[in-house]
Structure formats: C-alpha cells, structure tokens
Amino acid sequence: MTIVAIALAVLAAVALAYGALYQHEAIAGQDDSHNGLNWAHFKELLNNRRWLVGLVITGIGTVGNIIALALAPVMVVQPIGAFSLIVSVLLGIRHRGLKVNRRLVQAVVWCSVGVTVFVALSATTARSEVQLGADAMPLVWITAVVVLIGGVIMLFFRHAPQLVLITAAGLLFACVATNTHLVSVQLLRAGFDQVTWLNVAGLLAAVAIGSWFVQNAYAAGPPEMVIAGLTVIDPIGAVILGSVVLGEAADAPVWLVLAITATGLVACLGVVVLSRYHPDVKDRELQRRIARRPHQQTDTEES
Prior knowledge:
Layout lengths: L1 H27 L10 H7 L3 H23 L2 H4 L5 H13 L6 H22 L13 H20 L5 H29 L6 H24 L2 H22 L9 H24 L1 H24 L1
Helix pairs in contact: 1-3, 1-5, 1-10, 3-8, 5-10, 6-10, 6-11, 7-8, 7-9, 8-9, 8-10, 10-11
Subcellular location: Membrane
Keywords: Membrane, Transmembrane, Transmembrane helix
Protein name: Magnesium transporter NIPA
C-alpha cells in the first residue's frame, strides 16, 4: 500500500505544478490583480477557461493525494509534493520563458534535496495509529488556531507579501493533510460512526481559507514561489503535526529527529532564497524602483 501511496503522491505533485501554471497565468492576466484579489476578480475567474482547467487539474491531484494519505502515514506522503517544484520550474522555463540563474537553481536543489531526505528519514520511523474521540481533539484545537490566524491575516492584511501568503497557505494545508489522514484512518479502520466531525469541519475551514491565500499568492508573484510554499512548508508542518500530535514518530531515536529537523531547515532556507532571488521577484522589485523614481524626482524639484 505504501508504494501505491507514493505513486499517487508523485502524480498529485505533477498535477499541482500544471494546475499552478494555468491558474497563475489566468490570475496574472487580470487587471489590478497584483493589488490583491476581491470578489469581482473571483467572479471573473469563474468564467476564465484557463483558470477552470487549472482548478480541475489541481482537484484531480488533490483526490490522488487524499487517497495516498488514506493508504500511508502523513510523514511519508506529504513531503513527496516537493517534486512539483522541479516540475513547476521546468514548466516555467518552457511556457513562461523563466530565466534560470544560479540562486534559482540553488534554491530548487535545497528544497528538493532537503525534502527528499526528509521523506526518506521520515519513512523509516513513521507509523499510523487510529486517533478516536478525545485523542483527535488536540488536532482540532491546533487547526482552529491556525484557521483563526489565517482569518485575521485575510481580513486585515489584504496586501501581505507573497512569502507571508504562501507561509499561511502552507500551514493551513498542513492542517488539511493531517486532518485528512486522521479522518481517513478513522473511517477505514474504525468505521463511519467513529469519524470525528470536528476534524472534518476544521479540514474544510482550512481548505477554504488556504485556497484564498493560494489564489492571492498567484497574484502577488511567480507560481514557483507558491509551489515552494505548498511543497516545503506544508509537508514540514504536516510531519510535525503527524509526529507530535498523531504520534507517528513515537519510536524515533533522538538522532533521527535531529536529522529530520536539519533537513527540514535546509528546505525552508531554499524557500527563503527563492523568495528573494527568483527572476520574476527581482524584475518586480526593479519595476517598483523605476516607478518610484519619477515621484522622488518631482519631490526634489518641488523642494
């Protein structure tokens, strides 16, 4: 079953990369979308064929990932999504004319290698346990806190930087993955009557707010950054929840925990580097500086 889960997770990663390409192109083509999406933008997207195709592809990948989470521990399945970052960069080079620089390559390598080793180490110790009743409640409360923080950011920080948006989305979808695994195991091993519906409610709330962050992140910068956030921050958060809250790493020795932590930090460093040195990010920063110069010159002349 683990092999099947890994294969489904790989296919889901490829679907995520293609879905991101289509949705980013649709959102980037909207007028004033870089200032943050509103309901008018979303209504327009519902009539955009390219965005809808991206949504369908992403949905197919999501279904594959849900099945994978039902078949194997979170610590094994979720980090495999990092493969989509490589696919996303290759698609960017082919379809968007993405310029490859040394920093971009370094960031992708750090993210990919860090998460790959993360998966390999996690797989050696991960085990699934059925969490029923009160045992499932810690994850409910953690999800509620993350959803609340996400809601505050959504309401009061509409023009948040892309790194903030993808970090929030990654943490929310980490909660989605962990709750999906917990509910799936409850359903398959204990039966429908043992499903904790508060976990289902938390899962749906995290999906809704997380999706809002993802779409706004597409408007705020390159799709590779969104993929990096969802394939590094999401799995690392999911593995932490899986190991600490669900007890998937209860038997892991200290050295293994430290090694997993180190590889996770390497992957996160890759995301930070990508957020600073991605060619599209640097081009946007240059355009902002050029746009500010006339205002600065006008202020100097008036003084």
